[in-house]
Design goal:
Blueprint: H1 2-54, E1 65-70, E2 78-84, E3 88-90, E4 100-113, E5 116-130, E6 135-143
Antiparallel strand pairs: 1-2, 2-4, 3-4, 4-5, 5-6
């Protein structure tokens, strides 16, 4: 009877170790999922900035523009802050050609629960805009 009790105790200890390890792996998977969500939201913020720069409503080139707590999906608890810094001009090679512009864009995405920020992703990009062809693309994007 003592031997059976010892075997049951060993099985209980081993199974509790597996349960603890699987809980840690599940939490790690959830954290990875949250990080991916805010990374993609930060990329969406950069694309939002690109759309603002090339939109026909903005006939004049944007000066410094920023907005906080933007959302793609209302009530999701996922927000992004967007800052577009005023451009610096790059004169084109052709004197009859208009200048091109380079913007510094920062997109900070985060998830809030109960007013606390759980996870955050910040991307900073250099956006090149040519008003002649109305094309804009990122020269570089860095993660902070």
């Amino acid at each position: 009877m003592l031997m059976v009790l010892f075997i049951v105790m060993v099985i209980a200890v081993i199974s509790s170790g597996f349960i603890a390890r699987s809980d840690a792996e599940l939490q790690s998977g959830r954290n990875y999922c949250l990080r991916n969500e805010v990374d993609y939201l930060a990329w969406a913020g950069l694309e939002h900035a690109r759309a603002l720069v090339i939109s026909p409503e903005n006939t004049d080139v944007l000066d410094t523009w920023s907005q906080a707590e933007l959302q793609l999906e209302a009530g999701s608890g996922r927000y992004y802050d967007l800052v577009i810094n005023s451009p610096f001009e790059t004169v084109a090679a052709d004197p009859n050609d208009a200048s091109t512009y380079t913007y510094s864009v920062q997109s900070a995405a985060y998830r809030k629960i109960g007013g606390d920020v759980q996870t955050r992703s910040i991307l900073t990009g250099t956006l090149f805009y040519d008003p002649n062809s109305t094309q804009a693309y990122y020269i570089s994007v860095t993660r902070q």
